[in-house]
């Protein structure tokens, strides 16, 4: 039987499947919670008053629309036309705030008083703690102990904002482990607690919901590109992929325009064949992680492999079901970018345009060196965040 597609742009059906990926694989105790979330999202996704409040905050609090910047020196360097979507200029320094605001607005309408979240690089933790300060809600952030150590400035920001940081010491103490703990917390506190997931992962409706809350990125790109070039459609949109939220936002309004090529950059760490990588789509097999059927890095007998990337925001062994589908169906092209390639791309952007990108975003920028683009091509790169949080890594790894 044909399944009904429930989103105007995403290929997602009523049960939350993108082709064979997605769904909602959750413990019994969370069923009512996830059902209620689904109902609330359906109720408010197109609600006029909800969206008016969301858009007002995006404009006056976050500083949207973010610029679409024609990077002339970088374009010259690569012999093509490069436009940077400046999500790094959002309040708190990354795209994560777009989703955090909408999710917390939804939580408030559901009568929730306590917000929990997981974080890797700390950007989602900062974004959620920020919105909780803004709206006067209790906030607990789960973060792997490895990430607590390597993302210190963000840990300090979260604390100053009044949220509690709970370091997680299981596994390799990164994003996967923080997500496990957040889910455990949600199971224990189903009544008052809302779980704000930071990416297009987790059980349905999260991947769809987070993609929708990030879709403002591509809505703006279309409009801004039209104003600047007279054409609404670029030839390429490039974004990095951890769980896939900034890529989902940058791709969303182009998904149905087949002439727009979509390129996702995943983290190859030390190299895709070294055993030290987070190239989930190219190395993964179908499996279930955090409530969703998707591509998962795993051993022969199905144990999840510990991922590695220099970038804490891409260090995740799964990927959102939307991206697993876009990749396997051929709609999006996936490329793997090593730590060294990302570091070089960050340095190049810094020295040609005076923009220090987040290490995650540097993976998207590195695609410019991997591929050859035509001199008339219009290439949009989503700069998902700024590099302040990564200064220690940059200073220790890059020769000036
Ligand atoms: C969290 C983060 C990412 C990775 O998450 P996605 O959900 O894949 O977007 C990328 N860039 C920055 C700056 C981040 O903070």
Describe the structure.
- There is one protein chain.
- The protein has 400 residues and is α/β, with parallel strands linked by helices.
- Helix 4 (96-109) packs across helix 5, helix 9 (206-214) packs across helix 11 and helix 10 crosses helix 11.
- The chain contains 16 helices and 14 strands.
- Helix 11 (245-251) links the parallel strand 9 and strand 10 (261-269).
- The model has no long low-confidence stretch (mean pLDDT 96).
- The chain has a 6-stranded mixed beta sheet with strand order 3-4-14-9-10-13, with helices on both faces.
- Bound molecules: pyridoxal-5'-phosphate (PLP).
What's the story with the biggest beta sheet? Answer: 6 strands, mixed
Q: Widest sheet: strand order?
A: 3-4-14-9-10-13
Q: Kindly state the percentage of residues in helix.
A: 40-55%
Coarse structural class: alpha/beta
Q: How many helical elements? A: 16
Mean pLDDT: 96
- Share in β-strands: 15-25%
Overall geometric form? globular
H/E order of the elements? EEHHEHEHEHEHHEHEHHEHEHEEHEHHEH
Cα-to-Cα separation, first versus last residue: 60 Å
Number of domains: 2
- In the CATH hierarchy, what is the architecture of the largest domain at level 2? 3-Layer(aba) Sandwich
Rg over CA atoms, rounded to whole Å, is: 19 Å
Which ions, cofactors or small ligands are bound in this entry?
pyridoxal-5'-phosphate
Report the strand count: 14
User: What would CATH call the class of the largest domain?
Assistant: Alpha Beta
């Amino acid at each position: 039987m044909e399944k009904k597609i429930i989103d105007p742009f995403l290929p997602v059906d009523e049960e939350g499947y993108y082709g064979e990926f997605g769904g909602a694989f959750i413990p019994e105790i969370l069923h009512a919670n996830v059902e209620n979330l689904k109902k609330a999202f359906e109720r408010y996704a197109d609600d006029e008053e909800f969206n008016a409040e969301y858009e007002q905050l995006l404009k006056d609090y976050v500083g949207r629309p973010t610029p679409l910047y024609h990077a002339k020196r970088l374009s010259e360097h690569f012999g093509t036309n490069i436009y940077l979507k400046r999500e790094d200029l959002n309040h708190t320094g990354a795209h994560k705030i777009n989703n955090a605001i909408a999710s917390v607005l939804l939580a408030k309408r559901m009568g929730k008083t306590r917000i929990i979240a997981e974080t890797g690089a700390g950007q989602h933790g900062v974004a959620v703690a920020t919105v909780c300060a803004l709206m006067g809600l209790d906030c607990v952030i789960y973060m792997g102990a490895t990430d607590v150590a390597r993302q210190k400035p963000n840990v300090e920001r979260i604390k100053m904002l009044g949220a509690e940081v709970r370091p997680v010491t299981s596994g390799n103490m990164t994003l996967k482990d923080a997500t496990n703990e957040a889910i455990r917390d949600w199971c224990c506190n189903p009544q008052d607690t809302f779980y704000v997931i930071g990416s297009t992962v987790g059980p349905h409706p999260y991947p769809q919901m987070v993609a929708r809350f990030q879709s403002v990125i591509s809505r703006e790109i279309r409009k801004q590109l039209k104003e600047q070039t007279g054409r609404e459609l670029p030839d390429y949109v490039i974004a990095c992929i951890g769980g896939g939220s900034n890529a989902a936002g940058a791709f969303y309004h182009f998904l149905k325009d087949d002439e727009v090529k979509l390129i996702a950059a995943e983290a190859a760490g030390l190299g895709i064949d070294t055993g030290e990588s987070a190239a989930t789509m190219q190395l993964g097999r179908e499996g279930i992680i955090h409530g969703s059927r998707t591509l998962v890095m795993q051993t022969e007998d199905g144990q999840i492999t510990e991922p590695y990337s220099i970038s804490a925001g891409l260090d995740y062994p799964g990927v959102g079901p939307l991206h697993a589908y876009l990749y396997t169906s051929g709609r999006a092209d996936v490329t793997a970018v090593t730590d060294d390639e990302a570091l070089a791309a960050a340095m190049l952007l810094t020295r040609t345009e005076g923009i220090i990108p987040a290490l995650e975003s540097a993976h998207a920028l590195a695609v410019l060196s991997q591929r050859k683009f035509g001199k008339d091509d219009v290439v949009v790169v989503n700069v998902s965040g700024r590099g302040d949080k990564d200064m220690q890594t940059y200073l220790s790894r890059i020769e000036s």
